[in-house]
Each structure stands twice: as C-alpha cells, then as structure tokens.
Amino acid sequence: MKINQFGLKRVSFDEAKKELLAAGFLASDSPQDATKLWFRFLRKSFLNVHDDSSFINKLGNFLADEETDLATFYRSGDSLTKEIFYTVGMQLLEFEPAIDFEPKEVLAEAEKIGVPLFAGEFASEETVIEAWYLLLTSHTKNGLNYLDKLASEGYYENNPVSKPFFFNGKAQAVFDTTRLIREVVYVEAPLDTDKDGKRDLLKLEILRPTETEAGLQVATLFTASPYSQGVNGPAGEELTYDVNVPLKRKEPTKTTYAEIQYKPEPIELPAEREVSGQATHATETFSLENNHSLNDFFLARGFAVVYGAGIGTRDSDGIQTCGSVEQTTAMAAYIEWLAGNRRAFTNRTDNIEIKAWWSNKKVAMTGKSYLGTLATACATRQVEGLETIISEAAISNWYQYYRDNGLVIAPGGFPGEDADVLAIETFSKMRNAGDYLHSKNFFLDYLKEMAELQDRKMGNYNTFWDERNYLPFIKDIKCDVVMVHGLNDWNVKPRQVADLWDALKEVPVAKKLILHQGQHIYINNMPSLDFQDMMNLWLSHKLYGVENNAKELLPDIVYQKNTAPETWTALDDWAPVSEKVYYLAEKVLSETNATGSVTFNDRLPKEQYESYTKNVALWEKELKTVGPMENHRYLAKTKGLDQAIFLNGRPKVKIKVASSSDLGMLSFELIDFGPAKRLKPVPDVLVPHGLPLGRNWREDNLVEFKLGTEDECKLITRGHINLQNRENAWKVDDLKANEFVEIELSLHPTMYHLPAGRQIGLVVYGTDFGMTVRGNQDIMYTIDLAASQLILPIGE
Questions:
Q1: Residues 152, 228, 324, 369: which is the catalytic one?
Q2: Which domain holds residue 37?
Q3: By the number of CB atoms within 10 A of the CB, which of 341, 352, 634, 649 ranks highest?
Q4: 164, 210: one domain
C-alpha cells in the first residue's frame, strides 16, 4: 500500500497547538510530560471507552514495538520514542504490523508507504503536539485522514466545536446529516425554449444544513445534471443510429470558418412573471436525490448541495437541447439565484417568490461527464457567484465527442449515439405524461431539426457544432478551474481536457489538472490519493475564504503513473520538452528513413466482419496481433527501447497515403508492446461501502487501480481522420482514387512511461469497429513509407 498526500498543509507549532485546542485534543489541564500527553491524545481518540480499565485494555490491542504491547509499555512508565509513536501511529492509521509494515523498521516502512513523519526526538511536549497534529492529518489505509476517521466514529459528538469548523485548512465533518433540510424551488430562467409564451421555470433540489435556520449562511456545491430527474433509455435506444453503414464521398468545398461560425440571434423573451407574494420556505420537498458522493462528503462539512437538471427535464419547463447556448443559460440561472441575482418560486403556478437567504453567495460546480461539461460551459459565462468548478471527464467541444476530423466518431461504448439521441434520453419530462403532452409535438419537431443540423452524413464541423464548442470562450473564464480526467477514457477522450488545459494557459486564473489511469470514472474514493482532502482544501479556500495556501500547495498537475500501482506525482505542464522521430518501414519503426510502400485492404471476409460488429473487444485484440487482421492494417514496432522514456503530450503521425477510392478514412493506435503486468483501466473494489462520508451518513466503495495479469500489449492512444478533411474539419478537400495525399494528425494526448526493453508500436487501419462507421468497403490503402513518420512527445 502506498498513499500520496498533496492536500496536507504543514503548520507551525503555534498553529498546531491552537487548532488542537479548538478541536478538543488539548485543554488547560493537558499534561506537559511528553509521554503522558501522548497517552491523553490516545485516550481522546479511543471513542468507545469511558474508564481507565477499558482504556488500558484497548491499549493491549496495539504493539508498542515488536516485543511489547502498548498496555505493557503504558504500565512500565518508560519514555515515548519516535519508533513507538509511529509503531502505534501506523496502527491507528489502519496499517497492520507484519502485513503492511515491519515494526522493526517502522520509520523506513512508514516513509515507504508515504506516511508523513515528524522530525526530531519525542522527549518534549512540543514535539508530541506537532507530531500528533501531523498524524491526525495523515491518511489512513482506508481513504480518510485520521481525524476524518475519528469524526465518522463520533469524535465531535463528545467534543463540540463551532460550525463550520476548519482543521488543517479544511472543513470538518461536524454537521448532522440526519437533519438536512430538503426543499425544491423553481428558478425563472431568461429562456422560453418550448415557445409557450412564458419564461422557463427550472426545478432545483436543495440540501442544506439545519443550522441555516438559525442564521448560518453556507457555501453551495451545484451539480448541473440533465440525468438527475431520470432518463428515457428506451426512447434513446429507438433513436440510436445504425453504424454498419458505408463512409460517404463528400463534394469538395472551400468553406471558411467565418461561414459556419455560430452567431447568436437576438430573441425577444416573454416578460418576467409578476410576483404574487413572498415566502421564506419552500412548499415542496423530495426524499432522495440522484446524489454524487463527493457532494455527500461536503454535506457533512457545512456546505449546501443543489442539483439542477435544467430545461426539458422532469418538473421543469422547456425542451432538451444537448449542449446548446440555451442549456448553458439555464444552468447559469441556478447560480444567479444562489448569488441573489435571479428569481425563484415555490412552484410553477402560484408566483410566490423565494430567495436563497441561507446562501453565502459563493458557488462551486461539481460533477463528471455531462455534469462537468456544463460546469465548463457555465464558467465561460462569468456568472457572478461562481467561484470555481471541479470539472471531471468533461467535454470542452461537443464536435470532438460525436465527431472528429470530418468523421462521425462514437463515444467509446456507445456506437450510434448522437446529440439528438442524448437529447431524447435526457428529456425526462417525457416521464410526466401529462406535462409532456403540451410540448410533445414541438420537441419532436426540434429533434428532426437537430438530426439535420448535426449532419451524420458528412461529419463536418458546422454551425450546429460551433455553438457547442466552448473552447473559443475559455478566454472569458474568471473563476478558478480544477480538471480531472482519465488517460484511458475513450468516452470523453483525453483531447477534451488537454484542449481545455492549453486554452487556460493564457487565462489569469488558477488551474489544476489531475490525470488518472482510468476510464470514465470518479476518483474521490481511492485511498492512494487524497483527492477529497485536495478538494476540501480548495473549496474551503474558494468558498469560505480560509487562508490555507490551497493555490500554492496543490501542484498544477498531479498524474498517476502507469508503471506501478498507487503512484501519483506532480508535474508542471502537459507538454513535451523534446521530440523523437521514428520513420515508418515495413513492420518496423526505424530511426532512419525507409523506402517503398505497404498496402492493406479495409474489407474483411463477411464472417469476420460480422463477428467484429458483435464483439468489438475481439477486433481490438486481433488488430494488434498476428492473425486475421494481418492484411487489413499496417503494424510496425520499434526495437526494444535502450532506455525508459516518458511520453508527455500529443504524439503526431505524418503519413503519405493513397486510397483506391475517392473517399477514405484512417485510424491510428499507438501501442506499448512487451510482456508485463499493467494497471487495469477499471479499479478494483477493495471494500464495498468502506469509505464513510460523515457520521452515520452515506458511504462509498473503496476502490483502487490494481495490476492485471501479464499481457503482451496495451493501447497508449489513438486518433482518426477523414481523408477529405486533411486541412480542417469544416473544409472538404478533394480526394482522387490512387492519388497520394499527405496527412498530419495529432493523436490524443497522453502521459505514459515506457520502461527499457518495451517496444513502441503503431497501427494504421481504416474502420474502427468501436468508433467509426463500419461499411466494410472494398478500399485499398497504400502508405508511402519514405514520406511517413511518427513523432513522439518526450517529457522529462
């Protein structure tokens, strides 16, 4: 086991003493003798014992050293040593002697695991105070820091503190989540998306501490989730497109970006509602929200949490538009209400206004995928009150989610999905049949319009997609940004966050990036990384103004290494310091230029083709090995690497290619070859419901990335391009049969360590059975090796 702590704030002795006094560990009668003070701290942390005999009995469960139990040491009257402090401390942190560490080598073992150690001898009161403070803020084996663990077991019930309460710069779990107030309001948005002559009212579900009733104003975490009021799975499945269709020839164009750039047209809105009265409390509640466990963590720490699904969702007005300007406006309206700058009502008919009087007017947005996407979108609007976003696995450009370089590209795992499919899936108003009745025809007409505008036939970038591209507006962001993304996420692919990161470089806001080795997942429940502490430090500063050096303490980039479990490290930038060029040769990636050409045919035998359409994993495996795909792709490898290299950035392919037809596409995969146990892209569950999020509150599974069985290769990154979009995604280039054209393509960015001895492989092929259309067309591709190369981004 290894733990990595980036959210731990080192403090002075005076600060440690002050915070321990406030938390109830120190008192005016605390012993001044170092050993006695330590045992007082232990007594305070053994929450289930109430007399001396029981305390001593519990001490007997711990080792003091390899030959002495702690009760015996207590009776001996001997002085505390650093080794004894940490032998016991490791056990308090849930590490087991002889399993997780060897008591004889406790200091070296603790350092190896990543437990922060306090320097110096343990003979003084001051040393014990500082060391205990550090231990309280150290992470346990099971995901929480030690003080959070004590809080989940009831520490603050016997040691009441002010609310909210901050320790080590982070909000503590001192709020009673069994008394949360749950209420619903309806925010009036500056929209009329269903054209009914009335501004859209949008349902907002609120959870806030009961202490707000006594005047406490709290910060808010807002999750904008079009899924939170339910989804229409069958309707989405019915609309999903067939991908077993041929790639189509496009007529060449000279289209410029200016011709397809989205330009909003002024819309005359209905008047605001006339207010009929005022209310301080909602008249509607709810029993269980579609929760997010990071939000649950903060509910126990004095934050309000709100969930808004937006236009076209259950109990809200309007229609669903999937990534449009109107959807961003709807989500921004919620923030405006929380900040006191927009109206909300107790229901959709009575016009009784209600204010967010309990809000301190500071908001952060949280959530993954569509949820994080809308956080990014709202950040571009400069909404007053939005202090930061935590944008996880988020889209920054919808075109590159459903399209790429002139091709229709599926998000990994969802072939045939498109913007209109997602719109109907999240149009949860359909589940309220009576309400749906009034907007059904209007919405179905809008879906038909979407189908035309999104243009699956050609796959070009157009005005529809430009409206759904947030990257041109990243320069307008004023709030600080945290980004989280998986380097193996082929749903929302890594380019989405890399483009956002690059766009933010010139924007004068704080920006933090966390990259993991997983797919499309949350990472707030992994014991190897103190993600919850990092976000607690960040949000305590951003939303409560705690001066905890969060911006300076958290690295700009934290990434998970792919070569060893539980290993996270800091980095300054996602960009190479140099490049390494390999030339394409027959079956070889060479350091010298080659000559000649290679060919492969995209058409497969019928049985093989049908097999792959039903089993994409089989296609993915056979693409990289000697076998049925041998004549249907180009595969080349380097010799074994003389020394380890670190890929940091966007690999590029320059290739000269001819298609036997007047249309064509190329797909690319960069591969790590060599027998090894590699990290699995899906984390294993260590302990079901093993991570408590507060006292008698919800729990999350503890998960961790583990090494899999030995395999021969692993995908590093990939890319796709339509040969008729060589210049850009909106201009169509001509393509003549058997005429060579030059392609330059950046693959999805990566951070990847390749140990010495491994081989780097490049696969070039046509149809991607997981992502492109699958027409099984008889197209022969020829690569001119002398004009083709792979360029790798090399990091330090």
A1: 369
A2: 13-171
A3: 634
A4: no
Known catalytic residue: 520? yes
Catalytic residue among 520, 541, 632, 720: 520
pLDDT digits (tens, 9 = 90+) for 346-365: 999 999 999 999 999 999 99
Mean pLDDT calculated for residue range 694-711 = 96
- Same-domain pairing of 229 and 355: yes
Of the residues 192, 418, 489, 530, only one is catalytic, namely 489
pLDDT tier, 160 (very low <50, low <70, confident <90, very high otherwise) = very high
Angle subtended by helix axes 34-45 and 82-92, to nearest 10:
0
pLDDT of residue 794: 98
pLDDT tens digits, one per residue of 460-492 = 999 999 999 999 999 999 999 999 999 999 999
Q: Is 209 found in the same domain as 166?
A: no
Please give the pLDDT value at position 121: 84
Q: Is pTM beyond 0.90 here?
A: yes
Q: Is 516 a catalytic residue?
A: no
The CATH number linked to 469 is: 3.40.50
160 with 215, same domain: the answer is no
The domain boundary, picked from 125, 153, 171, lies at 171
Look up 489 and say whether it is catalytic.
Answer: yes
The residue to which tokens 């006094």 are assigned? 21
Same domain, residue pair 166 and 200: no
Helical H segments across 240-319, by residue range: 257-260, 293-299
* 728/212 Cα distance (integer angstroms): 53
Closest CA to 378 of 315, 438, 331: 331
Tell whether 590 is covered by a domain: no
